[in-house]
Amino acid sequence: MEDKKRDVTIYDLAEELNVSPSTVSRALNDHYSIGKETKKAVRELAKKRGYRPNTIASSLRTNRSFTIGVLVSWINRPFISSLISGVEKSAREAGYHVIISQSYDNTELEKENLQALYDSRISALIVSLAMGTQQYEHFDLFTNNGIPVVFVDRIPLMSGIHKVNINNFNAGFEATEHLIEQGCTRIAHFGGARHQSIYEDRRLGYIAALKKNNLEVDESLIIQFESLSAEEGSRLTEQVLSMEKRPDGIFCANDTAAVSAIQCAKQKGIAVPGELSIIGFNNDPICEIIDPPLSSIHHPAVEMGQVAIDQALGMLSGEIGTDTASSVTLDTHVVVRASSLRKDV
């Protein structure tokens, strides 16, 4: 087996061009002291020889890697992938690379991944909490060392942080009131873990809409669950549809569970939306594929990612103080489709 070919260095380029290594380094970094012809010659040879800059060594010297760390729950969730897309696009335009890591909604893995991102000398961190996270000391590693942290969507229940979110209370209220406007009077709510503020706020918005419209708040119809998965969506739909007095509407805290609710109801011969109106949350692409198409809350994922990068870069440049809280709240709205529209209303 042949030995692995060693990487080309600036010393190799310097020897071939008969210039000093410092000249090569400055040319590659577009330093003003190097003439255009020399820069051109260095770059052409670097490309020809397959030279790759040692970013790890560079970050050790400068203590800055021009890399943004992103830690999320599940990369394969459409909302999260759209959020990452917004982060990556804006970061790239600003000259930064992105390292993406996922916690699988596991707090211990979240902690491990944070350490790995810190060891990679990221310049800033953008994070959406794992579902089970209730303590936040593991983020001190970054804040105590001057590394900007921006929380997105799932944010800690603490003050003094930088965050990008939506008004989840209003979104929950509008989703529920939409079902009420369609004639629903007994509405179930499938929500996430209540210690995560986004799901608690959606639950409170749901309750407020019921009370405003003089409808009973039946605690047996309010079910919090941990994963918001398709499997749990089916199980919970089975549960509420087996009630003696079953609901005529369901508001799910994400679209995955809502799609499962539609499928489960149809398997039981329950007409959607004629007998059961359903609305989800996030406005994932699957909303337009399922039959009937799913009504949902538009969740501006891409924009949230872009705003998070703006906040992180603002802290890196000094335009935003790292020791003072900053918060951006983006707008949402109901996207009405067939799953919630009652034909007799």
Structure description:
This protein has three domains: 10-53, 434 Repressor (Amino-terminal Domain), CATH 1.10.260.40; 64-165 and 301-330, Rossmann fold (3-Layer(aba) Sandwich); 168-299, 3-Layer(aba) Sandwich (Rossmann fold). The chain is built from twelve helices and twelve strands. It has helices at 10-17, 21-28, 36-49, 55-62, 78-93, 107-119, 140-143, 168-181, 197-212, 230-241, 255-267, 301-317; strands at residues 67-72, 97-102, 124-127, 149-152, 162-166, 187-191, 222-224, 249-252, 277-279, 296-298, 326-330, 333-335. The strands form three sheets. The chain has a six-stranded parallel sheet with strand order 2-1-3-4-5-11, with helices on both faces. A four-stranded parallel sheet has the order 7-6-8-9, sandwiched between helices. Helix 10 crosses helix 11. The longest helix is centred in the last third of the chain and has 17 residues, at 301-317. The radius of gyration is 25 Å and the shape is elongated.
Would you identify the regions where 5 or more consecutive residues have pLDDT less than 50?
Answer: none
Can you tell me the CATH superfamily of the largest domain?
Answer: Response regulator
Q: Structural class, judged by helices and strands?
A: alpha/beta
Oligomeric state as shown: single chain
Q: What topology, given as strand order, has the largest sheet?
A: 2-1-3-4-5-11
The overall strand count is 12
Q: Could you provide a short overview of the structure?
A:
41% of the residues lie in helices and 15% in strands.
